[in-house]
């Protein structure tokens, strides 16, 4: 056996034993990196958008401890429906952990990047690991998923 082949044997055994986990890890890393590209230029740092308002409400809740009794308005501006304040409470937890708009964006992105793993597990449980890897890869690089997980 040649020397390079002996050096590659542990890697080959590792690949043979854990190829699905290695591929899933690669999908998650690619998904997170793709979502991080251009994150600082995203809407949360621009004033006047709903995301900015939600972040300010979460910051106000953390700083002053005033409980929220209603969530954001919906209904296309007619204010016909009220959402639950649970969304603001989730954002408040993220604000307590990060204390900055950029940190909150990264935490939100990481939270929604976890869908890659759940898509893999669902497809693996329904079919097999190959289908799970294909579904995770599509989820990791699909533009719609990237846009809505930022």
Topology:
Elements: H1 3-36, H2 50-64, E1 73-74, E2 81-82, H3 86-98, H4 101-113, H5 115-126, H6 129-141, H7 143-148
Antiparallel strand pairs: 1-2
Helix pairs in contact: 1-4, 1-6, 2-3, 3-4, 5-6
Largest sheet: 2 strands, antiparallel
Which segments are poorly predicted (pLDDT under 50) over 5 or more consecutive residues?
none
Q: Rg to the nearest angstrom?
A: 21 Å
Instruction: Summarize the helix and strand pattern as letters.
Output: HHEEHHHHH
Strand order in the sheet with the most strands: 1-2
Helix/sheet category: mainly alpha
Number of domains: 1
Query: How many beta-strand runs?
Result: 2
Our count of helices gives: 7
């Amino acid at each position: 056996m040649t020397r390079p082949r002996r050096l590659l044997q542990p890697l080959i055994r590792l690949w043979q034993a854990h190829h699905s986990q290695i591929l899933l890890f690669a999908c998650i890393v690619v998904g997170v990196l793709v979502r991080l590209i251009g994150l600082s230029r995203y809407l949360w740092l621009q004033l006047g958008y709903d995301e900015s308002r939600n972040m300010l409400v979460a910051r106000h809740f953390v700083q002053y401890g005033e409980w929220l009794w209603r969530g954001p308005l919906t209904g296309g501006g007619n204010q016909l429906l009220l959402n639950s304040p649970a969304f603001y409470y989730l954002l408040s937890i993220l604000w307590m952990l990060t204390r900055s708009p950029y940190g909150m964006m990264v935490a939100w992105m990481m939270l929604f990047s976890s869908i890659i793993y759940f898509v893999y597990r669902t497809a693996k449980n329904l079919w097999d690991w190959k289908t799970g890897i294909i579904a995770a890869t599509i989820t990791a690089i699909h533009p719609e998923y990237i846009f809505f997980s930022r």
